[in-house]
Write a structure and sequence with these properties.
Elements lengths: L1 H10 L1 H28 L27
Helix pairs in contact: 1-2
Amino acid sequence: MWAYIRQKTFEQPFIVWSIAIGFISPVAGLSIPFIRNRYFGWTPSVPLPKSYPVPDRPRRQLTGYDS
């Protein structure tokens, strides 16, 4: 079996790499968030505002080109 896998790594490396990445991705998906939060001190960024704050005052009358 190992001879067959070694042969395929030389003849068709894309198949072997895709299988290897397919096996590693579930483990990485569960461990990377834990490592990122625990060891690197990552915190989520502040969410972007969804609207512009309107000033709490009466609007001024436009003068000039717009009137």
